[in-house]
Design brief:
Layout (H helix, E strand, L loop, with lengths): L1 E5 L8 E5 L9 E10 L2 H8 L15 E4 L5 E4 L2 E2 L13 E2 L11 E5 L3 E3 L6 H5 L2 H14 L7 E4 L5 H12 L3 E6 L2 H10 L3 E4 L5 H7 L7 E6 L4 H6 L1 E9 L12 H6 L3 E4 L5 H13 L7 E6 L3 H10 L5 E5 L7
Parallel strand pairs: 10-11, 10-13, 11-12, 13-14, 14-15, 16-17
Antiparallel strand pairs: 1-2, 3-4, 3-8, 3-17, 4-5, 5-9, 6-7
Helix pairs in contact: 3-4, 3-9
């Protein structure tokens, strides 16, 4: 099979096209003939060596394709061995593409309990873009964040996969959604997905500007922070509000004033990925509400994985970037 393989850690250029032996199914594992694989920032960290993935390695957590044994159209759940505790993953939990070969390939071998039916209305590219970001965002908003219909949500960032998914899911569930961005075009794109407006985070006082857009100008019930701007995010919350943190792309550390935090009665909630139960909840929400399909910005051929990573890191995209495993690279 064809795959994008890295034999060292580094920049996008470490991803090279290669031929690997086909994986085979067994009692505990299914083999999926992939039609598309979506990129995530997590893949960039794997490529750089942050997770010390064994080399040579095939990255990739997201995929959609055909189960080679049953012929069914399926999604791959990228959270492996979550365990029985819904509050947090088990000690041996891992993300597909960390320690074992991932989805930047024509085929991938995964545990059978990580195979779910593909929603029939989605294209292959849209289906591949759903699992990791959809699962992560669903858990952040509803399992951890306890978001309910009628509540208000501020999403930090408007163009990434988490942000676009958050706007789509929260709006469909009846929340009032506002976003932040440094680009008017990305705010406009978020409004097309259901956001009620946005503010520019590259301008002074953006947190106050966001609060002015919240119901009764009181602040938001929930702020979703996938970038690491905790102090500004807390400033946008109403008293008693919840801040859900699921990323650190803009900052690896945060300093908070202690007294305002506890006098504000805030909840600070960390989260990542999710359980099979969360994934069931995501698929059920999509089936019961009018949720737009995942936003796909561009589809690259599998052989151009390095170019896809360069585009991902440029920050120019709106939505998900996908690798197509078919020769022409379109799905």
């Amino acid at each position: 099979m064809r795959a994008a393989v890295q034999r060292r850690y580094g920049g996008p250029d470490v991803l090279e096209a290669a031929e690997l032996p086909d994986p085979g199914p067994d009692r505990d594992h299914a083999v999926i003939e992939l039609r598309a694989a979506a990129l995530n920032w997590h893949d960039v960290l794997v490529r750089r060596g942050q997770y010390r993935s064994p080399l040579p390695h095939v990255p990739g957590a997201d995929g959609a394709g055909i189960d080679v044994e049953t012929g069914a159209e399926v999604l791959v759940l990228p959270a492996l061995r979550w365990g029985d505790d819904e509050s947090a993953p088990a000690a041996d939990w891992e993300i597909l593409g960390d320690r074992r070969h991932g989805t930047y390939a024509e085929k991938v071998r995964v545990p059978r309990d990580c195979v779910f039916p593909k929603p029939p209305a989605l294209t292959w590219a849209e289906a591949a873009a759903l699992p990791l970001v959809g699962l992560t965002t669903y858990r952040a908003l509803f399992t951890r964040g306890r978001l309910r219909a009628g509540e208000s949500l501020l999403v930090l960032g408007a163009g990434g996969g988490v942000a676009t998914m958050a706007v789509s899911l929260a709006s469909a569930a009846g929340a009032h959604v506002v976003v932040t961005s440094s680009a008017e075009a990305k705010i406009a794109g978020a409004c097309e997905l259901g956001a009620e407006g946005g503010v520019r985070y590259d301008r002074p006082g953006w947190a106050e500007a966001a609060v002015a857009r919240s119901p009764h100008r009181r602040g938001f019930d929930l702020v979703l922070d996938p970038v690491g701007s905790w102090a500004d995010a807390l400033a946008a919350l109403r008293p008693g509000g919840r801040l859900v943190v699921l990323g650190a792309s803009r900052a690896e550390s945060a300093t908070l004033a202690v007294r305002p935090y506890y006098f504000g009665q805030y909840d600070l909630l960390g989260t990542t990925m999710g359980s099979p139960r969360d994934f069931d909840g995501l698929l059920r929400l999509r089936a019961e509400h009018e949720v737009p399909p995942p936003v796909v910005d561009r589809v690259f051929p599998l052989a151009q994985a390095a170019d896809a990573h360069e585009y991902l890191e440029s920050g120019r995209g709106f939505g998900k970037i996908v690798l197509g495993t078919e020769a022409e690279g379109t799905v």
